[in-house]
Amino acid sequence: MTERTQAGRTPAGEAGKPGKPFLYVVVCAAGIAAEVDKLVGAALERDWEVGVIATPAALNGFFDTTAVETLTGRPIRSAWRTPADPRPFPPPDAVAVAPATFNTINKWAAGIADTLALGTLCEASGLGVPVAVLPCVADALAAHPAYRDSLERLRGMGVRIGEPYTGEPGPDGVRAEFGWERALDLLTGPGAP
Ligand SMILES: Cc1cc2nc3c(=O)[nH]c(=O)nc-3n(C[C@H](O)[C@H](O)[C@H](O)COP(=O)(O)O)c2cc1C
């Protein structure tokens, strides 16, 4: 059972500043995750409250968790709470998955919910909140037919999917910008609440 208000905003007091929409940022274990503070900072500037949910693998040195917790003012979540614990975050008004790995995209599309991040993603579409995903998947993995099927399935669920990004350097040895803010644009573009 969700706890969203009719206006789709978090109830007063839950998110600290009543009326601000609450964004879940789901972070997966891709190298580019080291820059996820760019997405969190941009979301805060656009007046979202932000809570970060990391996959267990992403907590294994992929980004500066202390810096991100300082930015959001909230602990990063990765494990399920115990039944007796209160909900650490309010329910989401939107979800951004960035970076999204091959592994998480395929498991999410298959309906696997064996981590908090995947459970949150599997539930999000059913809650009716907008979900945007920025994949970071190398070409060799992206060629796998299961990956193509997963993207197709997620699109069919209404998930907004950013442009392909390999995370690999171009011929000049330079890696392209990830375009973190695209996740926010996808959430607030046409069709968003
Ligand atoms: C340094 C490093 C960088 C990685 N970068 C990527 C990446 O960009 N995309 C990807 O799909 N997997 C990447 N991986 C592999 C994932 O970490 C691995 O598949 C992991 O199981 C993903 O877990 P998660 O989806 O639960 O976060 C990387 C692994 C390492 C060690």
From TrEMBL:
<dbReference type="Pfam" id="PF02441">
    <property type="entry name" value="Flavoprotein"/>
</dbReference>
<feature type="domain" description="Flavoprotein">
    <location>
        <begin position="24"/>
        <end position="154"/>
    </location>
</feature>
<dbReference type="InterPro" id="IPR036551">
    <property type="entry name" value="Flavin_trans-like"/>
</dbReference>
<dbReference type="InterPro" id="IPR003382">
    <property type="entry name" value="Flavoprotein"/>
</dbReference>
<protein>
    <submittedName>
        <fullName>Flavoprotein</fullName>
    </submittedName>
</protein>
